[in-house]
Design a protein that fits this description.
This protein is mainly α. Helix content is 73%, strand content 0%.
Amino acid sequence: MSVFPGLGVQLFSIGHRRHPRGVTGHLITAYCAGLALWTLYTATFSRIDALALTVVFLCLMLVPCFLMITAFAKTESSRIPFYDWVLALCAATCAVYFISTVDEIATRISLFTPLSDVQVFFAGLLILLTLEATRRTVGLFLMLLVVLFILYNLFGDRIEGALGHGVITLNHFLDINIYTTDALFGVPVRVAATYAFLFVMFGTFLEKARGGDFFFDLSAALTGRSPGGPAKVAVVSSAFFGTMSGSPTSDVVTTGSITIPMMKRLGYRPVLAGGVEVAASTGGSLLPPVMGSAAFIMAEFTGIDYGDIVIAALLPALLYYVGIMMQVHLRAVKLGLQPLPGDAVPAFGATLKAGWIYLLPLGVLILALAHGYSPTMVAAIASVSVIAVSWLNPKARLGPKAIYEALADTTVRMLGVTGACAAAGLVIGGITMTGLASKFSFMAFTLAGDWTFVALLLSAIVTIILGLGMPTPSAYVLAAVLIGPTLVNDFGIPLLSAHLFLMYFAVMSAMTPPVAVAAYAAAAIAQANPLAIAVTAVKFSFVAFVIPFSFIYAPDVLALRLEPIVILHAGSVVAGTVVLAIAMEGFFRHAITTPVRLLLLSSGLLLFSSSPVASIAGILFSSAVLAWQLRKRPVTLP
């Protein structure tokens, strides 16, 4: 039970997916499959204007949102009530209006050409529909946050002091938010309509072709026989799945439904099992080559090539999982947790022989990225390759029916992402109008002065707060708009380092108390306290809260170059990751006392610095402590 009764239900619960039957179900499925095909075509081959693409995509996505997602968590999931038909009809009407006037919208001059009464009506209706879609797909928390920003836009002129702004009329607000590319039809929804949609399609095809089963068996074959095997299987399988889904919560629900019960059966406490799964699932959004929608938004927002982002993010993501695997192993040895039973561990050779074909689409994806194709085209090529290789497995061939179902499922899976991106767009529009980003810069300077570390610490805290109850893309977008300019322009932090820093903490917000949406998902499976699961996950992921600071203080960790200085700095950070993991577990062949743990913790942090003196000191201190531990007889705690 949560210590905040009803909090998760009231603020973070979402509607259930409906399964309409009969003719209605077939028509909705056909609509969703057709929308997926249209999105695939326009994102890869069509030369449609970016604004037109975004307008059409969002309006068309709102229709199935009200038909396929229930209004409340306990609503009956097959019958579509009257009010949802009304909302879907309103969404379809908006779609017809905006699609028919998209050329006019693209050529009008904002704030110069007055809005007509019809334009005001449809702009207001679209905002209301977007807010309801956000509530259903992401939760009440994000919807209320967007409403708070809207109220600030409209009434912030009455606030005295630094947070106040000039008068913004209703028409001004609607003009910027609906009839420009600065808000609702801006970068977040454009990413949802291109990169994100096609990568979700890739993951859906791979899952439909039973690729998920192969990666789970491969994880079990690799790690199942070692101490803590069940937890290690959870870590590796969640990493594989997470890099495709990009959603910590989705990863927890998908892989956790298997790994959490498995860990519990083999002696793991429910809180421990849930914490391992949440920590492992959260990191999937940081693992290349997909990295979730946030990486695509970063590429679009900063102008940095997506391939460069993937290369820079590779070592930090691997370090994230090195830290978790190290802690999982030490915890298993400390508690005497056993490997998987021998008959439950598939043979590595047999697993690879049976499913090696599922590695081919990942290879195609990586090769396409390396050859400079756009991320959208890469996702399309990878999706086609999944269909091709599925025909090598007679039990998992994707025929016309399976492809049709996968296309429809892709659209439904994208409803939540689209709702979150639309909400983020409304917030961006408000921030642009009110100059809130510059106000944040002023407050950061007031609190941090010239101390970059304090500014980074404040930025991390604010990003986590912004991400409470929100999907990673929304949390990153808010942080990028509010905090990014301050870090880059005022503190001189390189663009890539600053935005990867913010993305890491946007991802971490999924498991950080008190909200920790991924932990709430795991709690339902583990039957344990979600806040206790969140705290356990944070302990397992402690290294992930340190790694982003290395982007600024040891930037070579982002450079995959075979140069002595880069290798030295990268090696220092790898060593620091291992030392921090040992310090957090307080065990290395023998229990480690609190003073020694603090010394190890300090040594590990020193190793994350690019300063040679700090690195040498960290190596000397940690080596001395670990050498002393190795002299002792190994002890397994009860």
